[in-house]
Amino acid sequence: MVLVSDRGQVIYEGAFGQASREYAQRNSAETQFNLASVNKSMTAIAVMRLVEAGRLQLDRSVDTWLGDRWLSRDIARRVTIRQLLSHTSGLGDYLEDAASTPCSTPLRVLADYRPFIARARLNAEPGTVSDYSNLGYLVLGALIEEVTGEAFDTHLRRTLLVPLDMARTQSVDLDYGYTRLAQGYVREPLVPLRGELSREEAEAHLARTGVRWRNNTHRCARPGTSAGGYYSTVGDLHRFARAIQSGVLVRAETLAEMRRAQNADNPNYGLGFTTRGGHIGHSGEITGAEARYRILPDGHIVIVLSNVQGGVGVAWDRIEAALGAASRQTSADVR
């Protein structure tokens, strides 16, 4: 699913492929896709609004609010909220532990992840290096719950999703039926569409060897958290991106700080946003699902949601080429 807007006006929206190959259900503007890590930006906005309200402080340590109930006391007193937001906390991750946990083990709310977080160790001194940490964003969710007295999902819905009319954005428990979710798929054999082989070489290889699509129900699907995994539509995500672009979610100085690179080790990440090339946005990827949104300096917003492994990269290349050609044509017309 692709959406492109220019200064708030949607100039292209297109649906491609199937939400369910098993039931021949096509993707549409109403299809909800797994955002993976994209909703980290929503978590960051929620945190920064609490900072603006004086209920959290960026450079105070986590133990100020959580004590040693989530992280060990030694780690909690050394890691700050800024470091959690910018992936410079030095914390490792929980995904490997979670992936090896039996599906029968409930991981439905943030508190269920506490055992993984309690075992966390520092891979580096906080503030020294950039090391992507889903675990850090779970801790941010715990901080939100602690200071607001609300479940993370309740707080996000009340303060962000409902006000922005993002009715199709939600944490989904796949044990129950949902009619408009995009089922994720992985190509087998898994051949890269970019990288080791050119796109033409990869497609030729698949044509020779045959390909089947494996859906991602074989993995334990957990409800979304502050670290990622919410489902949404291109329309809802555009409302969120447009609200950022319009400056209605946080103060101008707050957004400027979120855009600012926080560590020389990674000059392309701020506080909950990637910032490469003057844009802001985020990407996400899990087995069988990818998502990406960018707010570009020229006023464009680009959103691509895919339920096929590798789908975002292929679409993104074509969109960038089209926008580049349009920009060159506009410059030529002005001259």
Tell me about this structure.
- Helices cover 35% and strands 15% of the residues.
- The strands form four sheets. It has a five-stranded antiparallel β-sheet, sandwiched between helices.
- With 335 residues, the protein is α+β, with helices and mostly antiparallel strands.
- It has a single domain (2-334), classed as DD-peptidase/beta-lactamase superfamily (Beta-lactamase, 3-Layer(aba) Sandwich).
- The protein is globular.
- It has twelve helices and eleven strands.
Average pLDDT rating: 88
Number of helices: 12
The topology string of helices and strands comes to EEEEEHHHHHHHHEHEEHHEEEH
Count structural domains.
1
Q: What is the global morphology?
A: globular
Level-1 CATH class name: Alpha Beta
Summarize the structure.
The chain is α+β, with helices and mostly antiparallel strands and 335 residues long. The protein is 35% helix and 15% strand.
Write the layout of secondary structure elements.
Elements lengths: L1 E5 L2 E6 L3 E3 L4 E2 L6 E2 L5 H13 L10 H4 L6 H4 L4 H5 L9 H5 L14 H5 L15 H15 L3 H10 L23 E4 L10 H11 L2 E4 L15 E2 L1 H13 L5 H8 L20 E7 L2 E7 L4 E7 L4 H24 L1
Antiparallel strand pairs: 1-2, 1-11, 3-4, 5-8, 6-7, 9-10, 10-11
Features:
two-stranded antiparallel sheet, Beta-lactamase, disordered C terminus, 12 helices, alpha+beta, 335 residues, five-stranded antiparallel sheet, single chain
